[in-house]
Amino acid sequence: MDPRKIHILVLDREIEAGEAIRDSLKEAGYQVWSASTERDAIVLAEEKLFNLVVKSFDANRIDAVAFMDKIRAITPDTQFIFASEKGTICTAVDAIRKGAFDYLSKPIDSDQLIESIGKALEHQALVAEDQRLKSRLRKRSEPDIFAGKSRSMQDINALVAQIAPTDVTVLIQGESGTGKEIVARAIHEKSRRRSKPFIAVNCAALPDNLIEAELFGHVRGAFTGAINDRHGRFQLAHGGTLFLDEIGDMSPKGQGDLLRVLEDGIFRPVGSHKVEHADARIVAATNKDLEAEGMTGNFREDLFYRLNIVTILIPPLRERAEDIPTLVASFTEHFCAKHHRRQRKRFNREAVALFQTLRWPGNVRQLRNVIERLVVTVPKSIIAVEDLPSSLVRSPKGEQAFTITPGMSLAQVEAELIRQTLLKVTSNRAEAADRLGISRRALQYKIVSYGLQNLPKTQSLSE
Fold first, then answer.
1. Pairing label, strands 276-277, 266-267
2. Are 317 and 360 in contact, with CB atoms under 8 Å apart?
3. Is 283's pLDDT higher than 90?
4. Do residue 167 and residue 191 come from a single domain?
5. Cα dihedral 116, 122, 126, 131 sign
6. 3-class SS at 433?
7. At 11, which helix (H) or strand (E)?
8. Alpha carbon 406 to chain centroid, angstroms
9. Average pLDDT of the residues in 204-216
């Protein structure tokens, strides 16, 4: 590990002592900054990402945990080494219990400090590799719904990257099967909370009589059957992300309980006198129009406004048919590896073109399940139209219409009209331009502008 790439922060209220530590670490080749107050240290941490902090530790002050929390809110994997003049075994144990990697007695021996730093950095590298391994395993266990080049998915990708590092509440809307939970996990994985739990809860399955206990936990004896203390979803997701799936189906009581937590930031486990702080990022998902549900009284409008800070609208698969070839290839590769198929398989052009004309009421989930079934059941390497389920081949190709959602921009409406014309009416550019009432050159420009170049070829309805 190149010490020149390692950034270390030294925090010591005694300026001379801090400078001595800084100088010895610089001699070892590390990049080192020093501060004499926690405020200055926080400012430095916001400007630079520190691998490690060497902090003077006072056993009589209860400031270590709060300071570590502030630093780790900026860089979650930062390691800490504490040092104290009045150290005892109890002090060392307490420091490490509070989250430090190591504890050293003052005056600090330079060689001992360098050795401790080396071990802390090794531990940090192992933790980072573990997170990367988990990420790779997740990708192997869950195929990528972001595959493809449609503008809608590119926009969602960009929005996820923009909001993930923040703690802003997110509402994900889309039909069943579009991949709302996968988008929620992507937000979590790109956030500062990625090392903490991602807890998903199906709001539609929470019974009224147990909803408080499920969300906030309970203590022993809180009600009949509560024989032990039990953590709720907010406690399990502490420091991480709480994914509230099917939020539109949550009962009125549950909506009220959730609203109070979002407004106050605290909750009380059932039967407990202790109030706990809610430290979980909220990501909610629904296949319903919550604004319309609020207007009809089926969903609390005040809760909708609390959730609707940033909204991600996932389009149905039929509205991003240009992504289907990439999705098919990605899913096929994934399931060949998952089910240990030595023979590499692929779908021929005609089968993929047929996929692009279907309505896919189950969206990406349905496509994924079809691909998995065919990878497992078809013995040959090239899967053709005749290998597809008859129910799928006979399924309706869809009406010559599409939905305009209030709030769509004129550009989005125009792009969808062109897409559906090329998919459902004719892929012949000259004929499509004539149907749309524009020149072929103008149509070609719009096709490129809206990223519609990869739509499948289809026959004209007039043929």
1. antiparallel
2. yes
3. yes
4. yes
5. positive
6. helix
7. strand 7-11
8. 27
9. 86
